[in-house]
Automatic annotation (TrEMBL):
Residues 35-167 form the DinB-like domain. It holds the Pfam family DinB_2. This is DinB superfamily protein. InterPro entries: DinB-like, DinB/YfiT-like.
């Protein structure tokens, strides 16, 4: 399989100018479904499987799951900042360095599966409460000075959810782990 396909199994994220209410609802449903999809896929795996990289020179499944927990906790916080401050500048983090920390390389996957489960319960509750004015609120990402509308951020994290789920799912399929 080609490296680009292994890196981006559902393609790269392409933001749109605007999102319909139906698209936003679908994207929230994708975010909502991630915890159970991960738990159903990974629940019976052993450490050898968790410690397998999903692609050459890529993270292990363990690092991947911990990354999703880290990323989605940050996303939830960014939403709360955007909803309570006027176009705040968010705090970025180096996800590659976070993935190399001992907890990301060694901690049980179950810890982050539970974090994902509970952060998504809170996050989806918040997302489902947003009105049009809330969805138009923004934050600034200092890495590129981009202004990010919350409706587009929802789409990005729906993509991010499925993107990383597919990393693990396709690894399992390639290795006949199901």
């Amino acid at each position: 399989m080609e490296l680009e396909q292994l890196r981006f199994p559902i393609g790269r994220f392409t933001p749109k100018e605007s999102y319909t209410p139906a698209e936003i609802k679908t994207n929230i449903q994708i975010i909502s479904a991630l915890p159970s999809k991960f738990i159903n896929l990974l629940g019976g795996w052993d450490n050898d499987k968790y410690n397998t990289p999903y692609r050459p020179d890529g993270w292990t499944v363990r690092q991947l799951v911990h990354h999703v927990a880290d990323s989605h906790m940050n996303a939830y916080t960014r939403f709360r900042l955007a909803l309570t401050e006027d176009n705040p500048t968010i705090k970025p983090y180096d996800e590659a360095l976070w993935a190399e920390l001992p907890d990301a390389k060694e901690a049980p996957v179950e810890l982050s599966l539970q974090l994902i489960r509970y952060i998504h319960l809170r996050w989806v509750l918040l997302l489902n409460s947003l009105n049009d004015a809330d969805l138009a609120r923004t934050y600034i990402h200092p890495a590129n000075q981009s202004v990010n509308r919350l409706d587009a951020v929802i789409a990005n994290y729906a993509w991010h959810s499925e993107h990383h789920y597919q990393h693990a799912f396709q690894l399992a399929a390639r290795n006949n782990w199901s």
